[in-house]
Amino acid sequence: MSETSAAAAPAASNERMPPESIIAVEHVSKSVTDSTGTLEILRDIDFRLAPRETAAIVGASGSGKSTLLSIIAGLDTPTRGTVRLGGQDLFALDEDDRAALRARQVGFVFQSFQLMGNLTALENVMLPLELAGIRDARRRATDMLERVGLGQRLTHYPKVLSGGEQQRVALARAFVVEPAVLLADEPTGSLDFATGETIMELMLALNREQGTTLVLVTHDRGIAARCDRRITIEAGRLVDNS
After folding, report:
1. Edge-to-edge strands of the sheet including 80-85?
2. At residue 13, what are phi and psi to the nearest 5 degrees?
3. Cα torsion through 87, 63, 192, 161, rounded to 10
4. Distance CA 176, CA 162 (A)
5. Contact 70/83 with Cβ under 8 angstroms?
6. DSSP state of 90
């Protein structure tokens, strides 16, 4: 090889390198079979998200949005394809190792809040910190609840909190571990419009502060428009990723 060719080779190689991604969904398909036949839920879904990016998964009811989010989380397994989180192939791991990876890198927010009813707001937010063996869990949980406007509700149980307050606790619980990725499934679906708007503003603000990659499922086009990317699913197929 000539000196000119040798010098040019590294530059050409760099040009072919893909952009950095924290989430890589690689040709994911999901099907289920029962006595009536086989149903394809997802068909060859393929996309990547960069660190700090926000993405909304949108589509009609039954299009496969929540199934896709569950696969990204490693809570459901694809029939074909895989998901890489921070470069790690989720489905090369066993269930225990996937759970450990989620605990380290992923936060969750659900439509139904998923708080522990027998724990106070403070105890709910402390829980993931304690499971991770973090010693100053009480201080960090208190600081995060104050950040979401619930500094006066630390000792209250979920049953005496409003829907908006419960979702604030859920946000505090998700963000207190400073996850690399936050996955949210219809986070405002159980709330009235005004409360939902407040929760979305808070979620996006916390996301910016912590530099988290946010992936949320929503039927609300207004919420989707506030994200960097819209991943549109129709009948299990990716029809738009812009």
Report:
1. 37-49, 23-34, 80-85, 88-89
2. -65, -45
3. -50
4. 21
5. no
6. G
User: Can you tell me which residue has the tokens 């530099």?
Assistant: 211
Strands of 106-110's sheet in order across: 106-110, 181-185, 213-217, 54-58, 229-234, 237-241
CA 162/CA 194 separation, integer angstroms: 13
Whole-prediction pTM: 0.86
pLDDT attached to residue 6: 45
Which residues, 6 or more positions from 55, have their beta carbon under 8 angstroms from its beta carbon? 49, 214, 215, 216, 227, 228, 229, 230, 231
Closest CA to 128 of 112, 144, 152: 144
Q: Give residue 14's pLDDT.
A: 40
**Quick check: 217 and 186 in contact, CB under 8 A?**
yes
| Cα distances (Å, whole numbers) of residue 78 to 34, 155, 200 | 17, 41, 30
CA distances for 113 relative to 40, 129, 186, 216, angstroms = 29, 18, 10, 14
> Can you tell me the distance from the alpha carbon of 167 to that of 145, in angstroms, rounded to the nearest whole number?
11
Taking the chain (242 residues) in runs of 10, the rounded mean pLDDT of each run is 46 45 97 90 97 95 93 96 95 94 92 93 96 92 96 97 96 95 93 92 94 94 92 95 89
> What gap in Å lies between CA 210 and CA 204, rounded to an integer?
10
Q: What is the CA radius of gyration of the chain?
A: 20
- Distance of alpha carbon 183 from alpha carbon 126, whole angstroms: 19
Q: Which residues contact 121 (CB under 8 A, 6 or more apart)?
A: 145, 150, 153, 154, 155, 156, 157, 158, 161, 165, 169, 172
